[in-house]
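Task 17 of the worksheet. Students: predict the tertiary structure of the chain below and write it out as structure tokens. Keep your answer in the requested format; marks are given for formatting as well as content.
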Amino acid sequence: MLTLQRQALRIPFKGVGKRFMIYNTIDFLFRFFPLFLLAYYLTPPKLRNATLIIGSLVFYAFGSGWFTLLLLLSLLVNLIISRVMCSPAARKSGFSKKMLIVGLVYNFGLLVFFKYTNFLIENLNHLLSVLHLEIPTLSLTMPLGISFYTFQITSYLIDAYTQKCRPATNILHLGTYLCMFPQLLSGPICQYGEIRPQLLQRTINIRLFQEGMQTFTLGLGAKCLLANPMYSLWNNLSVIGYDSISTPYAWMGAFAYSFQIYFDFAGYSLMAMGVGKMLGFELPENFHLPYMSGSASEFWRRWHITLGRWFRNYVYIPLGGNRCGRGKTIRNMLVVWAFTGIWHGASWNFLIWGMVFFVLLTLEKNVYGKLLEKTYILKHLYIIFLIPLTWMIFAIPDLHQLGIYFTRLFPFLSSEEVRANTRDAVAAWQDYWKIFLPCILFSTPIPTYFYKKCKHTLPCILLLIVIFFYSVHAMMTQTNNPFNYLQF
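Model answer:
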């Protein structure tokens, strides 16, 4: 049989930076952002969109290099398509639909190429292995934020086609909507219709600047003082090896990762909203206390709100939503959750994670959802127990290692005797209880309630200053400072 030697076909993108100028970095906080704000505020209001685009491209190019051209190409192609698609002649002749299809193929074609090509090749190679054939993979670097800005520009294109929003007549307007750095890398995924009035006219004043600074500081604290230490616990557990941990430590790790991913992404979203306010934009909320939910469906109405809205508006409802009988509704949910899972990453664990939520939501809708609604304690215990288990599927891409982890969570699943240091959880708790307790507290409505009541008082402002300086100190001393959603 013919055997193809596996070798990577290299596509050079030498301009791709190795550092990312994300919010919780010294480069952003004390170099880029102060200089940008100075330029932005000194710019006349009519030219601020241009200043914002230039600043955003500098921000993006710092970590993405030549992939910035791909972002600009996406802007130009979709602007041209939308203008042609929405012209009276195109609508009258039926050419609009063809242009929409061209736009969708272009947008999703790039996303699939960069994000899923090697995943598809590797799985095809498994099938071809019986013939002793192997297709070489490509050496690709996924452009930063491509999953987010692809969904954002696609929503604009579809809304323009369905006449839910007017097409952009100015490249600066569409460019600001697509490229502005507060939401470029990890959302929130905005709709053009909700941002357009702010593109035309927005207010900048001391009150909004102060609110933006406070919101940004809350997000920075969530990221640096809560998410990063929880990542350290999870990372330490992973280094030890899942087959060497006790059941209490496995559960502690599951809760640690649950808190880490929540305060990581919620912190980023708060910082994005804070920067947006300082620039005069009101960006949509992305989280609303998801761990306070009483069902998996409620959890997803509260977690990554703008992504859920995107799948509802552009996949679920066009397929028929829940208006076409139980069977087709289940089919529509299956499609949505398959796409939701694979959107997060080109790996089988993400697809399995999406399918788990599909099963949970289907069961809640058709079997035990009404029972959950009638309870109070039970439904919250259900989420507290369930969500960390789903996050383990999300966090561990190796399915064999995932299986090992679940045998540590539930020792009765394994016929082998688990031999582990049962004091590992005690030692970890002694090191991390000071982080776990505030994570639990800040997952509840209590801090938000008191913050809204006293956010303009001097003690609150002083507390935020303390949080800011402790966060900066953490940035300079912590070795792990990742943003999970940058990889998606």
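Marker's comment: The first strand starts at residue 9 and ends at 10. The two ends are 38 Å apart (CA to CA).
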